[in-house]
Amino acid sequence: MATPTDPADRVLPIATRVTAVARPSSIVCSKIGACAANLYRFAFASSNLLASPLFQIPTAHMPPAADTRPQGALPYRWVILAVGIVAYGTSQFSRQNYAGVQKFIAADLGLDRGALGLMGSAFFYSYALFQMPWGIASDRFGSRTVIGFGILLTAVTMSGFAMGDTNGSLVFWRILSGIAAAAVYVPLTGGIARWFPDKERGVSQGTLGGVGGALGEGTAYVLLPVLSIYFASGWRQGMHMIAAAIAVMGVLCLLLFRSAPSHQTATTRKPFDWSVLRDLQLWCYSFLWSGFVIGIRICQIWIAVYAADVFIAGRGMPLNEAVVRGGLLALIAYSLLGRAGGCTLAGRLADMLARRGISRTAVIIAWLVLGIGLLQLLATGVTAIWALVVIAMLLGTSVNLFALIPAAISDTFGIQRTASISSFANTMAQLSGATALAVSGYVGISLNAQPGNALTEYRGIWLSAVVGMSIMATLAICAYVALRNGWVTRPAGVIAAPSTSMTA
C-alpha cells in the first residue's frame, strides 16, 4: 500500500472515524475533521520551516555558552516567581472580575452583550494608557513599590465596582480598576528578568503569564460564581470577599518581593529612550503582542459564557447550573490545562529551541498562527462538548503566549529595560484588544443569521478575533522577514550587548 505524501491524508481518515462515532452533529463534525486536517498540515509544515535558515539565529547573535551572572546561588528567585504569580493573579482577576458572573450582572442591570463588551473595553483602555507610566516608573524606581501599590489599589476599585448600581458607575470603577491593574504585570516582567538567568527566561516568563493568569481567570470563572451562588447573598458580596483577599496579597507582595538580587542594580536612570521607536524589532514585538491580546480579550470574556449557552441550548440546563458548568469548563480546559500547564511547557520549549539556535520570535509567530486557526475552527459552530474542551485547552496555551515576548525583549534590549520596553508593546496591544472587545458583541449581533438563537451570535465574535489577529500576525511576519533578510537595519544605539541577543 502506498504511503500518503500529504500529512493531512493521514489525519483525515482518523477524523472521519471519530465523527462517525460521535455524531453530535454530522455537519459540525465534518467541519471539525477538515479543519483538524488543515491544522495538522500547518504543524507538519511548521516543523520543517522552523528548521530552515530563516528561523536560525545568526552566529553573531548566538547566546553565550554559559550565563555570566551568578544566578545559581539564588534560590530566592523561585520565591520571587511565586509571589509574582500571586500578584499577576490579582491583576488578571481584576480584568475578568465580571466574566464568570456577567449573566447575573446583565440580569440585575438589564445589560445586553454590547454593553458587557463596552464595560470590558473601558477597563482595557485605561489599562493600556497607564502601561508606560507604570512600566517606566518600575525601571526607574524599582518594581516592588509599584506592584504592591497597584494590588492594594485594585482591591479598593474591586469593592467600588461591587457597590455600583448603574451601568455608568460600573464603567467608572472599571476605568479605575484598569489604572490600578496596569501597575502589576509589566513591572513584574522586569523584576522576573532581573532574577532569572538567560537559559530560564522563557520558562520563568511563561510560568508567570500562564500560572498567574490561570489563577486570576479561575477566580473569576469559578470561585466568584460559586461564592455568589452558594456562600454569599449575590455577586456583589462575593466580589467584596475577593477584594479583601486581594488586599492581603498586596501586603504579602510588599513584604516578600524584591526588585532585583543584591548584586544587581534594580533601576536605570533612562529606562525608555524614544529613539527606540525607530527600531523595527520593537514594532515586530508590538504587533505580535497585539495579536495575542486581541485573541485573549475575546476568549477570556466569551469562552465561559459561550460554554454556558451551549449547555443551555444543547442540554436544557437552568441558568445557574449552566453558568457553573461553563465556568468549570473554562477553568479546567482553558485556564488550568491550556494556560497554566501549556504556557509553562511552551516557555521551557522556547528556551530549549533558543539554545539550539531557533529564534524566540519565530516560535512566538508560530503560536500566534495556531491561535488564529483554532478561533477559525470555533467560528464553524462547535457545540460538541468534547470538541469545545479540546479547542479551549489549545486556545488557552496558544493565545496566552504573549508571555514569551518579554523574554525576547530581555534578550534584545537588556534586562534593565524589560519593563519599560514591554510597556510600550503592551500599550499598543491593550488598545488593540480593547477595541476588538468593544466591537465583538456588536459584531456578533449584526452577523446573527438566526435571531433568537444565542449561539449563532458567537460566530461574529470569533471571526472578529480571527480578523484582528491575522492583521497583526501579517504585520509582525513582514517586519521579522525584513529584519532577518537585512532589508531593514536596526539603529546601532538600541542594540543590546551580544550576551543578551538571542532573538535578533
Can you describe this structure?
It is globular and about 60 Å long. The chain is an all-alpha fold. It has helices spanning 8-22, 26-50, 76-95, 102-109, 113-129, 131-141, 143-162, 167-181, 185-195, 201-231, 235-256, 280-315, 319-355, 360-378, 385-398, 405-413, 418-446, 457-484. Helix content is 73%, strand content 0%.
Strand tally: 0
**Helicity level:** over 70%
Oligomer: single chain
Q: What is the arithmetic mean of pLDDT?
A: 79
Q: Number of helical runs?
A: 18
Write down the secondary-structure element order.
HHHHHHHHHHHHHHHHHH
The largest pleated sheet is described as: none
Please report the distance between the alpha carbons of the first and last residues: 46 Å
- Going by helix content, strand content and strand pairing, the class is mainly alpha
Task: Identify the overall geometry.
Answer: globular
The value of Rg in angstroms is 22 Å
pLDDT < 50 runs, ≥5 residues: 1-29, 46-51, 54-71, 497-504
Strand content: under 5%
Write the layout of secondary structure elements.
Blueprint lengths: L7 H15 L3 H25 L25 H20 L6 H8 L3 H17 L1 H11 L1 H20 L4 H15 L3 H11 L5 H31 L3 H22 L23 H36 L3 H37 L4 H19 L6 H14 L6 H9 L4 H29 L10 H28 L20
Helix pairs in contact: 1-2, 2-14, 3-7, 3-8, 3-9, 3-10, 3-11, 5-8, 5-17, 6-7, 6-17, 7-8, 7-9, 7-11, 9-17, 10-11, 10-13, 12-13, 12-14, 12-15, 12-17, 12-18, 13-15, 14-15, 14-18, 16-17, 17-18
Condensed summary:
This protein has 504 residues and is mainly alpha-helical. It has helices spanning 8-22, 26-50, 76-95, 102-109, 113-129, 131-141, 143-162, 167-181, 185-195, 201-231, 235-256, 280-315, 319-355, 360-378, 385-398, 405-413, 418-446, 457-484.
